[in-house]
TrEMBL record:
This is Uncharacterized protein. PANTHER family: PTHR44489, ZINC FINGER CCCH DOMAIN-CONTAINING PROTEIN 59-RELATED. InterPro entries: WD40/YVTN_repeat-like_dom_sf, WD40_PAC1, WD40_repeat_CS, WD40_repeat_dom_sf, WD40_rpt, WDR86-like. WD repeats lie at residues 5-46, 130-171. It comes from Hevea brasiliensis (Para rubber tree). The keyword Cell division does not apply.
Length: 294
């Protein structure tokens, strides 16, 4: 562990490192975004948005913040950090994802809203929403290799959407509780749920995903993130309701290590040069780094 950033008053739900600056952005259910200096570890600025934050991501010089009934957008490359408000969501925005010039937002009423823009100046125009879900969308994942958007929902399903037509091409059933997090690459998809299980899906002939394996945890799964360790091995970081982040080798799914937190870790994000970050319900953002001897 390199540092603990402790200023938020409620759970941390978003951590994003801007590639356009040396700033780390953290969003919390306390309604604030904190801007941290990556060199000193000090909080440079607090932006009070006035409403509980549901999600926060960075893409290039853009910061996207999901709030009830709106997505706030900051362009860090423009003088004065130009801000835009994207109206249209109904209820909390729990998940955000970017693909090329498209922004997706998963909302509490089950919609996935889609904006198209240039990501240059005044960017975004609403495209028709994706409406095939009955309950809140809580996670989104994009796999450009198979041209798919995956969405996990409180209705316990995963939807597979075609990125070109934005039509649903498959519904994955099998989980018995909320699908909280998704991880994909090539023809493979991992789905994680509060039902304590991870399901491994592979695309067969015709591109349809089929379940091929399952892994069970002792508690509900909250968040997963894939990255490489210091030796270049693909690793899955899996946060559970037991206040731990479990580290698994992707190839074998053998547990390598655990990161113990004071409370539930709801956000995991990668940084440069072996850095990664966790945000938890104890209001703490932890800065960590892979070690060569691990």
């Amino acid at each position: 562990m390199l540092a603990r950033l402790e200023r938020h008053k409620k759970s941390v739900v978003g951590v994003a490192l801007s590639l356009a600056s040396d700033k780390l952005y953290t969003g919390s259910r306390d309604g604030t975004v904190r801007v941290w200096d990556c060199n000193s570890g000090k909080c440079d600025r607090v932006i009070n948005l006035g409403f509980e934050i549901g999600s926060l991501i960075c893409e290039g010089s853009w910061v996207f913040i999901g709030l009830p009934n709106v997505v706030r957008v900051w362009n860090l490359s423009l003088e004065g950090n130009k801000e835009f408000c994207l109206d249209g969501p109904i209820g909390q925005v729990y998940a955000l994802a970017v693909y090329k010039d498209l922004l997706f937002a998963g909302t509490a009423n089950g919609d996935i809203l889609l904006w198209e823009g240039s990501f240059e100046a005044n960017p975004f125009a609403m495209v028709a929403p994706l409406r095939e879900l009955k309950k809140a969308v809580v996670c989104l994942n994009i796999c450009s290799g198979v041209n798919s958007l995956y969405s996990g929902s409180m209705d316990n399903t995963v939807k597979v959407w075609d990125l070109e037509t934005v039509q649903c091409k498959q519904t994955l059933n099998g989980h018995k509780d909320v699908v909280m997090s998704l991880l994909s690459w090539d023809q493979c998809l991992l789905t994680y749920s509060l039902d304590h299980t991870m399901k491994f899906w592979i695309a067969r002939e015709g591109g349809k995903l089929e379940p091929v394996d399952m892994h069970e945890e002792k508690s509900g799964i909250l968040k997963v993130f894939g990255m490489q360790d210091a030796k270049g091995r693909p690793i899955v970081l899996c946060s559970c309701n037991d206040n731990c982040v479990h580290l698994y080798e992707l190839d074998s799914f053998n547990e390598m290590d655990r990161i113990f937190a004071e409370n539930k870790v709801r956000e995991i994000q990668r940084g440069p040069n072996g850095l990664f970050f966790t945000g938890d319900a104890a209001r703490v953002v932890t800065v960590l780094m892979w070690q060569q001897n691990k």
